[in-house]
Every structure is written in structure tokens, then in C-alpha cells.
Amino acid sequence: xxxxxxxxxGYVRLVDHMGSDLTVVNAARxxxxxxxxxxxxxxxxxxxxxxxxxxxxxxxxxxTQFEVYAPLMVARQWWKYVVGSAHYEGTxxxxxxxxxxxxxxxxxxxxxxxxEAGEWRSKPENSxxxxxxxxxxxxxxxxxxxxxxYTELGxxxxxxxxxxxxxxxxxxxxxxxxxxxxxxxxxxxxxxxAHFLKQRLEHDAQKEIQDYxxxxxxxxxxxxPVSLEQLMSEVVKD
Length: 238
Known about the structure:
Layout: E1 3-6, E2 10-18, H1 21-29, H2 41-53, E3 63-71, H3 72-83, E4 97-100, H4 137-163, H5 168-171, E5 181-189, H6 190-200, H7 207-220, H8 225-231, H9 233-236
């Protein structure tokens, strides 16, 4: 499986990858001019040691590339992991790259995420962020309808502006932003992906990005099973 659907129109697609658990091992063993040809129990112990002791540079030689299609509210949370990609003390760049489609150049029909009536969540009781329990269905139905109407109004004004000759980079101002799907390529090291997953699989992470994190985990887990388990064991074992 290389593509997993998420949030109605959204998806995560595994585009490419470089390396394996053996890549991590050999990146570490090169210090002693050694190389393993097959992953052994001794190599697994080395991966455990590297993770436990914080020797993370070997994990940055294993790379994975994804295509993601997600609402803008998810994309902007995700983007923080690229802006702050040197997020480990003393380890430098963690090899993240991000390239996103732009409505300065394309005018494809916009797609939007609309929560179903039973998916609207209440505000949390004891926090300034996040969400609480699902609200009653009738209220959710009201806001699903209002969001659809609001979005359709924005789309009609966007299309009218284009028809009148307004450039795409300004006409897009009429599009309601946070629910609009955007598409990007994310290339990152296994270390960086594990960092993302550890935070976005937590119970208090926004549900929508949790859904995408679960898809990323399902796609990357078979590629680097030992490294991923050691870098984020308390999450992977759940």
C-alpha cells in the first residue's frame, strides 16, 4: 500500500524512500571502517544503543518522501516541523524539505474539508486549546450547512474574479483558507519523522493531524521497523 485516504478528500502517498535499518547501522559503523551486509541481532542492539544514548546522526541517513493532500489548518501545523527542523540540541539540520502547490500558478478547482454533523467538537473545559466532546448532532448539522454555504460563496467570488481578469494570486483571497485542501511533498529523515509522530500521535494533538500522523506511521513502519520503534517506542507499541 502506498496511498492512504484521510479526511474525505485528503490522502498521504509514499513517493520514495532511501535506506533501511541497515543504513542506520552502517552510518554508525563507518567510524570504525566497518559495514554490515545483513541486519543482525548485534546491529539491532546498536540501533537501540544509538537511540537510547541520543546518537541520532545515523538516523538522518535514512530518508522518506511523501505527497500529502490535507486542509490548510493541518498543513500549517505540519509546516512547523520544517521551519524548526534543527529541533535536536547539537544535532544540526534534520534533513527536511517541503514543496507545496501554489495558487499563484494553478487554478484547479478548489476542494474543501467539511466536518460531518457528528464530527464537530466542543471547546475543552480545562484548556485554552484543543477540543472536547462531540457536540449534539443538531448543532453540528447547523454548522456543517453554514460552513458549506460560506465556502460556496467564497468559491463563487473567486471564480468571478478570475473571469473578470483578476490574477490568480489575488483572486485566491476570496477562498476560505483553513478548510481548503493543499498539496505538498514532504521529504524527511527517519529521525525527523519520528519526532513528528511522537508529538502528533499524542492524545492531545488536534484530531485531524492525528489522522494524518497515523497514515504516515502505517506507511513508514515497514521501511524502518527497528529504528522507528526505538526512536518512539512508547507510541509505536500502542
